[in-house]
Write a structure and sequence with these properties.
With about 750 residues, the protein is of the alpha+beta class. Helix 12 packs antiparallel against helix 13 and helix 13 packs antiparallel against helix 15.
Amino acid sequence: MDRYLAKIATLLVEPAGSPRSVCKVFAAKPTPEKELLAGKLFGFAEVAPNGVAASGLIDQLLDQVKDSLYGAVGNQPAAFPTPSATEFDEHFGFVLRNANGIIARYLEGEGVRIALEDSAFLLGNIRQQQFALAAVGNVFGYLFHYRPNHDYRAVSVTEPNADAVPNPLRVFSQTVSGAIGPLDYLFFCTESILDYLSLHTVQSAVTGGAGTDAVRQLKQALAKANPKTMGAAVIINLVLQRPPTRAAENAERFDYPVVAARDSMRVLNQTQHRTSLLLTPKLLPDRKNMARWLHTTSRRLLDGTKRFLPGPKGRRATPAAVVTPGKKPAPAEKPELRLPNNPMLQSVTRAAAESSNKVIHHPVVRMLGGTVRRSALWIGEHTQRLSLIQRITVIGGIVVTALLMFNLTTLSSRNTQLSRERAFASILGQVEQLRDASQSALIYQDQVGARTHLNEALHLLNQLPAAFRDHPTVARTRRELLARLSELRHEIIINEPLQLANFTNLEASTRIAPALIKISDRLYAQDAKSKLFFSLNLSSRAIANVAPSSATVGALTASAVSSNGAILLDDDNRVTRLDAAERIHPVPLNTPGGKITSLDVFHDRLYLLSSDGSSIFRADPTAGGYGSPRPWLSDPTVDLRQAVDIAVDGDVYALRSDGEIIRLNQGQAAEFSTRAIDPPLAGPTKIETSEASKYLYVLDPPTKRLLVVEKTGDLVAQYRSELFDELRDVIVDEAGQKIYLLNGPRIFGVPMQHLK
């Protein structure tokens, strides 16, 4: 069973000057054995007013609660026999009762005044995945819960009550208990921390790296805010600790010298045997088969050379049959093919006989057979001059050479097979190591590293020889890796997306332009061939033609929504407006030189991307339309030559055809990077966002997917479907939690799952 140890990082804010309170933060450091039994204690205390008495109270409180938890009182171990959840809570309640007594005795014995209404205490304990805590005053606690495919969700753990005044005799009166997942984070802080940092900033820092990195990022953010009051924070996450194997636990039972000597001799014998097989080729690997083959070969060679040997009494062998001129020799009788009684076996036998007959009479086989026959005749003619012993020697040499070649070929084949099997076992071992490395990376929230390890493992499996690719172990391992990789890629597979419209049902020759428009509850598309517009009522799903307009409109290439309709761009560089009454009006606009590739509207300002990528232009609204576009991009280092689309939310996001997304702020390049989109973008065409959204939506037609990327650069979701085979444009409706995709002549509706 896996065991978890708590990793706790602390943050203490100590501003310059004379603070009004004393603040200290702590985390116990027990041994792993004590932590697994009793847990790890953590907390902080902020006591007002500032002074020696307050500091002494905090020190005594922290020392005593650690002693009561780990059994330092009376030098006796704490009674904690079994690590059950009930006893965990009960023992932590015992610690809190001791803490209440410590505070009461200190206040009474020292005779000091402590403003408990202005103080804050946090005392908690975590063991494995269980935690329990008690908070007094304005203590803020959050559980950043990891949700697969949906990033982190902040869950409030403590609810501070500023109006409640703690009882000096019972300061810790309420406890909170719960569980933390392996990928979750716990964060606790005093009120002053959240006075200078937003919860979003805290969440990004805590979930973005290890505890020390999170503390460093929070300190940097606080340094910019220049806090004036004391503050403390605690960050907690879990680290997996695997228990020792059973073999290691029982290691003392083994007699190592005897076992090592016996294993070494067995390995040595096996190694010597394999070495002898590799270095000494066998002449007779299979005695019976080779003896039979030797006997048959010898008989055939002797029969072939018999006619050249001298017969008895000095006569030669009987010559071949004399053929009378004009008469054809009688064909030799072929042996009758005896078929079995079973009809199925009869059909198989006939098929085998026909196949063999075709092979024997094949031109190549006949040519090889003739060559072998002529070689045998040549050998027979030249061996007739030799003595009987010399002939036998020659024949024996030929047979031995043939046997040697046969065994060398067999040995080479076996060695090749053995090397393949070794390579197969080695690759499977490497794949197993990469899979374990992926699991380890996830413990530290390194999803990019986990995906990298899984991709390397799949690449190794694909490098296997064809004979091993269909092996059951390989197939099962590949399925497991692909399933895990799909989860880490945040893939949402849509087998059958909802089809809202198919414009080819109106006319088979319809060719829809690559621009989709949404005004109110209607979607609009254009037939690029006839230049007619269609409207789709999302409520009734009825399709209608838009009445002709006097405005001349070419085939649409891009569109954007403004406050008084949709701005349209056609292939003739004309800009028009489609209003809610489905009327099309020309928009007076002196477009800059060159063709416009894309446009977007933000606060009624029109942003235009030139086709050569030289610049981005902005046109401000006027009474009749827009003024003259002015160059907006002022950073000469920005390369937009491969830019295909832009999206504006105050900043401008430019999408390049190679998959790079460039963020621009006030005409200058701003820091932005997508964190390891996997698989990489192959040929994106559209990018969409809005001021109210925290996501970027990127259309990648070659890979049949729509990507959702957070504006921090993190990959949130990938909507994929085999039916996304001709993606053209996307409309995002986060308020209605719907995504509308223009796919060739069809419109698909996809419910948003990444917002849940």
